[in-house]
Design a protein that fits this description.
The complex is a heterotrimer of chains A (506), B (255) and C (313).
Chain A: H1 2-32, H2 46-57, H3 64-94, H4 99-109, H5 113-124, H6 128-152, H7 157-160, H8 167-173, H9 175-201, H10 209-218, H11 222-237, H12 239-242, H13 248-258, H14 269-278, H15 282-285, H16 289-329, H17 335-355, H18 358-369, H19 373-403, H20 413-444, H21 455-464, H22 468-496
Chain B: E1 2-13, E2 16-27, E3 31-35, H1 42-52, E4 57-60, H2 72-77, H3 86-94, H4 98-111, H5 126-140, E5 144-148, H6 156-168, E6 172-176, H7 180-186, E7 189-194, E8 197-203, H8 209-216, H9 224-228, H10 238-241
Parallel strand pairs in B: 3-6, 3-7, 4-5, 5-6
Antiparallel strand pairs in B: 1-2, 7-8
Chain C: H1 23-37, E1 49-53, H2 62-77, E2 81-83, H3 89-97, E3 103-106, H4 108-117, E4 122-127, E5 135-140, H5 155-158, E6 162-165, H6 171-185, H7 189-192, E7 195-198, H8 202-211, E8 216-220, H9 221-229, E9 238-243, E10 251-254, H10 258-262, H11 266-275, H12 280-283, E11 291-293, H13 300-308
Parallel strand pairs in C: 1-2, 1-3, 6-7, 6-8
Antiparallel strand pairs in C: 3-10, 4-10, 4-11, 5-8, 5-9
Helix pairs in contact in C: 3-4, 4-13, 6-13
Chain lengths: 506, 255, 313
């Protein structure tokens, strides 16, 4: 039969494509390898590691009220930010066919939450507004893109029999309810991400978990740091038990009430000053054209170029390592592959991998391996490997449950892993990997503490030096790089996508 | 008056030509059945007609035209979306509008699904789903009806009654049909599509069961469901469950 | 086509237990309804005198410790006084510029940066120790065993090694050490060392040089002395190899417009409240022996140095 022949051919070509894509990843990483800065230096980390290890098994916190408050505010920021950004993203997704919307969404999500927070802090200081905006602005960009892509996947037949009406109304009746399960699922997943973002914002001063975590870690109070880390892991692990759809409106009200009080709200004039003055170099404001050109040239050829290079090198290596880690760890949380006994510890491992802030991991690796790009690459790869491994395992698990009703003859053990499960999950795995590419790039930017001069290192320096003109320009460069990577990853995702799917009628 | 007029046109989808150089005129008041083996291009022709004046046509696509999570009420109601304001349409999702409730209930009664009006359509049987789809087309309240095997999942007697009622409520109708008896009983003109063109286009009164037997010879009737199942719409099942993965198999569908 | 059931996140009904509306639908309706409920959070606008202190040494229980300082100031000044904690030098400067705080305990460099941004703001008081502040260069004993007063004499030892500053905006952990390094070697730090990093703060510099993650580091002398006194440093592994000349550092800086907002003479009241702070428990937070008067001019050398190494334009 023709269909069977077609399928066989297409499977063949899909396999070749996937191999080619993975080959590309290897090639990119190999090209980067000689340039990347991955020295290992002999260190004597035992004392410090022993202190960290001891802290991990003796978590303690002497002021439970402040811990609960920090947890509450971490959830509050995340919940409110998602509650606002998801509907906004959905609305924007309706206009995704319009290129300015696509560009805006790309621009919003290309800047890391931390940098958004640093920007908003210039205008609203350390306030609830700053924290909320720092999460919801980039998240709106992400929701817009993902929702738009989900909606585009929906069956279009229902719309055909509809009378002319606004797109919003038509989609409210057709595509949105059609896509509701994946939309909600994605929103829940994003909420977990928002919890992480919210916690991380504490690193720059918002009163979330990260605030105390950073302090405890800096001070070497590892028992306290461990308490915070465990509390955070427990919070994420238990989402499904406490995030009840019915309770969400109640939670939202509590969240508004929980938001930290803003002291001495700043005057709106700062917004204008920021936009009209702070972010532009002095020669430009003075109307000195050649001076402006010099200023930009110096920045672009110096910090921007150097940062761009280091950021790319680092994220390419992290990307490949992430892939390898995913292949290594996803089976641990896949019941079909490891059975029920390893399944729980496996899931815990993935939870720890994706919930431990990269900064903390990078710090431990810094102690072990000395300063270089290596701790950053490892931290990024472990975090993202854990996250994608979790997604892949979840997908495999869902398929497993469905298949148990119709048992299939399948090989077992390593054969099952290498011949059935991995090839089956590979397209989705790669798709997720390319989604995370953007994220890895953004995150590699914030690991400047290791003395690696990524774009983020320079952006952070510019903020520390109160040079918003530089920060703005460097963020712009980062955003452009992100958009470029987004474009390439879109293209690669399409290549990775199974071709056996034929077009619908009409 | 000619509603639709095709002159030497070639039709197809996904870059593939299905019907070549066909000519066809449809006048107001005609009740036309489209017949032919599966994959011959009936649906292609129907959708082409629909695209010629989509706003004046009540279209009843195959069963996948329903929105699973919405109730039968909402699925029928959306046929009349243009008769309420956008705000009312939004509110209707939360709390059904009183007037629309009455009107839709009446349509449902006529179709025999009043009891299922508030069930989401994924809980309904194949037959009930077809009635909901018909309900939406009726609620469009247009003069032209285009249907793609709208009663294939109903038993012949019920199918006949329903189709009769639908035809009587529209001035003009073009319906893809499979059942020769129903076709001969209810339509006054039959267009047969096969082998990339129009095989015959004759008044129903001139046709007999024999003509249908000849038409379907070679084409296998039993394949109908397998080949018409639009698998692409669902894509890989996995594409719906993956949080970070939408867009995964979208390129095929983007136009 | 039927929706794929397995994709349901909140599956509770099935064919055996059908429910009238799928749970998603109810949630969908609820989401639509509750979107309307979401209003922006109300923002308190209080006429409160707010201060902050840059994160420096012991960051734990900041609210508790500086809360006491707030109470003391409130008593002395007869207005409501609040403290807000910040995580970075830049955040403290921003809060000061945006009038979110009116008074701040700044480092030498951050104070200069803040006063450049807020016209008429002035340095009020500094710690007794701040008149003659200094930095240490510390080294892991693996790389440097001998101690020498001449920084330039370390040229060979430092070659190919790694070095960490503290925070990027720190005076004692970055600005002055970088200045002295440049002065001694006539080279930028990243030309002098194989790698230069920013550990984030003083205590992390100490820990990381001790563990050997970095070979050398620059640290605030008072933080080091404190850590050694409390036994938090293994001096068999890390030692001070050089002590810098002295320079002015931390100071209290106040906005120029406080008199307009809180009444004439308010600035002077704040100054005397600070100078009269004698309670050891309060002073421990900074940690200083006491406060003495300071002026903007005291910090001119810091500004010059910052300009010299390109941290200020």
């Amino acid at each position: 039969m023709l269909p069977a022949l077609l399928t066989r051919q297409e499977t063949h070509s899909s396999a070749r494509r996937l191999t080619a894509i993975i080959g590309l990843l290897w090639l990119a990483a190999l090209v980067c390898l000689p340039w990347a800065d991955l020295d290992i230096r002999a260190t004597e980390p035992l004392d410090e590691l022993a202190r960290i290890g001891w802290g991990l098994i003796t978590p303690g916190w002497d002021d439970p009220a402040s811990l609960v408050q920090a947890l509450g505010q971490t959830v509050a920021f995340a919940l409110l930010a998602v509650a606002i950004s998801a509907p906004l993203g959905l609305l924007a997704a309706l206009m995704f066919h319009w290129w300015p919307v696509r560009l805006l969404a790309a621009a919003l999500r290309s800047v890391h939450e931390i940098f958004w927070a640093l920007i908003f802090m210039q205008i609203w200081g350390l306030s609830a507004t700053t924290g909320l905006l720092a999460i919801l602005v980039p998240y709106t960009g992400v929701f817009t893109k993902v929702f738009a892509e989900t909606l585009a996947l929906q069956n279009r037949t229902p719309e055909q029999s509809l009378p002319p009406a606004w797109r919003l109304i038509r989609w409210l009746y057709t595509r949105i309810p059609q896509a509701l399960p994946p939309l909600l699922q994605y929103t829940r997943y994003r909420f977990e991400c928002a919890l992480r973002s919210s916690a991380i914002l504490g690193f720059i001063g918002l009163p979330t978990l990260g605030f105390h975590l950073e302090t405890a870690f800096k001070q070497g109070q590892y028992s306290e740091a461990a308490m915070l880390l465990w509390a955070f892991v427990a919070l994420i692990a238990s989402i499904r038990y406490w995030l009840r759809p019915k309770l969400i409106p109640v939670y939202l009200l509590i969240a508004i009430w929980l938001l930290p009080e803003t002291i001495g709200f700043s005057n709106p004039g700062y917004l204008w000053q920021f936009i009209s003055q702070d972010i532009w170099p002095a020669p430009l404001l003075a109307g000195d054209l050649s001076g402006t050109f010099d200023w930009y040239w110096k920045l672009l050829s110096g910090q921007a170029w150097q940062g761009l290079l280091q950021t790319l090198l680092l994220s390419q290596l992290a990307l490949l390592l992430t892939l390898l880690i995913v292949l290594l760890v996803y089976p641990l949380a896949t019941r079909r592959l490891v059975g029920p006994k390893i399944w729980w510890p496996g899931r815990l491992l993935l939870l720890l991998m994706r919930s431990t802030p990269e900064m903390v991991m990078a710090y431990v690796f810094l102690l072990l391996l000395g300063p270089s790009g290596l701790p950053a690459v490892l931290a990024l790869a472990i975090h993202n490997g854990g996250l994608i491994g979790f997604l892949v395992a979840g997908k495999s698990e869902m398929e497993y449950q469905r298949q148990q009703q119709q048992p299939l003859q399948e090989p077992s053990g390593l054969l099952l892993y290498s011949y059935v499960e991995t090839p089956r999950q590979l397209p989705a795995l790669l798709a997720w990997l390319f989604y995370r590419w953007e994220v890895i790039l953004r995150e590699s930017a914030i690991l400047g503490i290791l003395g690696i001069t990524t774009l983020g290192f320079y952006i952070d320096s510019a903020f520390e030096e109160i040079r918003y003109d530089r920060a703005f320009m460097l963020i712009l460069v980062t955003a452009l790089l992100n958009m470029l990577v987004d474009g390439v990853s879109r293209w690669l995702r399409r290549l990775a996508e199974p071709q056996a799917v034929s077009a619908g009628r009409g | 008056m000619a509603l639709f007029s095709l002159q030497q046109q070639s039709l197809g989808y996904a870059g593939r030509i299905v019907l070549r150089d066909i000519s066809l005129t449809i006048r107001a008041g005609e009740k036309i059945a489209l017949v032919g083996p599966s994959g011959a291009g009936k649906s292609t022709l129907l959708h082409h007609l629909h695209q010629l004046q989509p706003d004046q046509i009540a279209l009843c696509p195959q069963a996948d035209g329903l929105v699973e999570l919405l109730s039968a009420y909402h699925n029928i109601f959306m046929g009349g979306l243009d008769r309420v304001s956008p705000l009312a349409a939004m509110w209707n999702l939360i709390r059904p509008l009183a007037q629309a409730r009455q009107q839709v209930a009446q349509v449902a009664r006529q179709l025999g699904i009043e009891a299922q009006l508030w069930q989401s359509v994924d809980r309904l049987s194949g037959g009930q789903r077809q009635r909901v789809a018909l309900g939406r087309a009726l609620y469009r309240q247009q003069a032209i009806f285009l249907g793609d095997e709208p009663v294939s999942a109903l038993d012949p007697l019920q199918g006949k009654l329903l189709l009769e009622s639908v035809l009587s409520q529209h001035q003009t109708a073009v319906v893809c049909m499979h059942n020769p008896e129903l076709t001969l009983a209810l339509f006054d003109r039959v267009i047969a599509v096969a082998n990339g063109g129009i095989l015959f286009d004759r008044p129903a009164s001139e046709l007999s069961q024999h003509d249908f037997d000849a038409l379907y010879q070679g084409g296998s009737m039993t394949d109908e469901h397998a080949s018409n199942q639009p698998t692409a719409d669902q894509g890989l099942p996995t594409s719906c469950i993956s949080p970070a993965q939408p867009g995964f198999n979208q390129s095929n569908r983007e136009q | 086509m039927r929706a794929s059931k397995f994709t349901r996140p909140f599956e509770r009904c099935d064919h055996n237990h059908p429910c009238e509306e799928p749970p998603e639908m109810k949630l969908f309706q609820r989401l639509v309804a509750s979107a309307a409920l979401l209003a922006a959070a109300a923002v308190a606008q209080a006429e409160t005198f707010v201060f902050t202190a840059i994160p420096d040494q012991d960051e734990s229980r900041l609210n508790e410790r500086f809360g006491k300082v707030a109470d003391y100031l409130s008593e002395q000044l007869d207005v409501e006084v609040k403290y807000i904690p910040v995580k970075s030098y830049a955040a403290a400067i921003t809060a000061f510029r945006n009038n979110q705080v009116q008074l701040a305990w700044f480092g030498g460099l951050s104070g200069v940066q803040a006063r450049r941004l807020v016209p008429d703001s002035e340095a009020l008081a500094q710690g007794v120790e701040d008149e003659q502040f200094k930095s240490y260069i510390i080294a892991n004993r693996k790389v440097a065993l001998t101690i020498n007063e001449d920084l330039a004499s370390y040229a060979d030892v430092m070659k190919g090694k790694t070095f960490t500053f503290g925070s990027k905006g720190s005076t004692s952990g970055r600005l002055m050490p970088e200045y002295f390094l440049r002065e001694a070697f006539n080279k930028a730090p990243d030309e002098l060392f194989d790698r230069v990093g920013f550990s984030g703060d003083h205590s992390r510099t100490v820990t990381q040089v001790e563990s050997g993650a970095w070979d050398f580091g620059a640290v605030n002398f008072s933080v080091w002395d404190d850590m050694v006194a409390q036994g938090q440093v293994n001096t068999d592994k890390v030692q001070v190899i050089w002590t810098s000349p002295t320079y002015p550092d931390y100071q209290w800086t106040i906005r120029g417009d406080v008199d307009g907002k809180f009444g004439n003479g308010f600035k002077d009241k704040v100054r005397s409240a600070l100078l009269n702070m004698k309670d050891k428990d309060l002073l421990k937070s900074f940690p200083r022996e006491g406060f003495i008067p300071a002026t903007n001019a005291d910090y001119a050398p810091i500004e010059t140095t910052a300009k010299a190494i390109g941290l200020l334009d």
